[in-house]
C-alpha cells in the first residue's frame, strides 16, 4: 500500500528537503513520538525550508523540547470504559480502533495514549449500553486498518440495534487518498447504519484533486463529509489561510465542522494561538464566508458534557 512510501528517519527527510545548517540541526527524533510523514505530504513541502505550514505540522523540531503542557490534555483516561472505548458525551462513544496513523501530526493530543487491542471488550460494552446511539471510529486512525478488519468492526456494530450512526474520524485520506478503494466503498455502501465522515485538515496546502476525488466517492454514497481543523500558530492562524481552506472545502461540497483550540499536550505549546485571536478570526470569516463555511470554534475541556463553543474569552 502507499502507506509504506514515506519517511520515518530524520536524516532521510532532511536530505529529501535539502535542509542545511541550523535548519537541519533543528530536526529531532523522539523515540516516544517518532517522525512519520507520507511521501505525498513530503512532496508538497518546499525544499530548503522548515517554516512552511506542512513542515511545521509534520517535522519534529526542537521546539518540542521546550516543555510545558500535559500528557492527557482532554481527559481521555478518566473517560475510559475499556482500553479501546471512551465515553465522554451522552449518546456517543468513541472506539479507538488502532494506535496506528498514516502520519504523526506534531500537535497530536493522543500521542501519549496507551493503546491496547481490546476491540471485543469495547463492542461488548457498547452492545450493553442502550444510551449509545452513535459510535465514532477513531484512534490512531481507523483507515489504518485493513478493509477486512474495518468490515468486521462495522458488521458487529450493525448488529447492535440501538447504534444508529457510525462516524469516522480520519486524517488518512489527506496523506494517502488511495486508501479509498473500491472494496472500502463497497463496505460503506452496504452498511445499514447512517455513516458520517469527519476528515482532519488544517490548511489548503494539504489538499489536491486526488483527495477531493476520494471524498467525492464517499459523498456519492449519501454519506455526509465534514472537516475539523486545529488552529495552529504560523500554520493557519490568519484570515487568509482559513478563508482559502474553508472556501475551497465548501466549493467541493465538504462542510467545515470544527475549528479546535489547541489541546495543550506536552511538546506542542509552540503551536498555541490565543483564544482572542481565534475569536477575531472567526468574526472576520463570518464577514466574508457563508454561514455553512464557517466552523464552530471549540475547545475540549475535560469533564464537560460536550465540546465547548468558544464565544468569548470567558469560555
Question: Could you walk me through the main structural features you see in this protein, from its secondary elements to its overall organization?
Answer:
Helices cover 30% and strands 17% of the residues. The protein is globular and about 60 Å long. With 315 residues, the protein is α/β, with parallel strands linked by helices. The strands form two sheets. It has a ten-stranded mixed β-sheet. A two-stranded antiparallel sheet has the order 1-2.
Give the gist of this structure.
It is built from eleven helices and twelve strands. By secondary structure, it is of the alpha/beta class. 37% of the residues are buried.
Please render the helix and strand layout as text.
Blueprint: E1 6-7, H1 10-16, H2 21-26, E2 37-38, H3 39-43, H4 53-58, E3 80-82, E4 85-86, E5 92-98, H5 119-128, E6 134-139, H6 147-158, E7 165-170, H7 172-175, H8 182-189, E8 194-200, H9 209-219, E9 225-230, H10 239-251, E10 255-260, H11 275-286, E11 296-299, E12 308-309
Parallel strand pairs: 5-6, 6-7, 7-8, 8-9, 9-10, 10-11
Antiparallel strand pairs: 1-2, 3-4, 4-5, 11-12
Rg from alpha-carbon coordinates = 19 Å
Report the average pLDDT across residues.
Answer: 95
Tell me the series of helices and strands, N- to C-terminal.
EHHEHHEEEHEHEHHEHEHEHEE
The helix tally amounts to 11
Helix content: 25-40%
Structural class by SSE content: alpha/beta
> Strands across the major sheet, in which order?
3-4-5-6-7-8-9-10-11-12
> Looking at the structure, what is the overall shape?
globular
How many E-type strands? 12
Strand content: 15-25%
Low-confidence stretches: none
Distance between the termini: 44 Å
Largest sheet: 10 strands, mixed
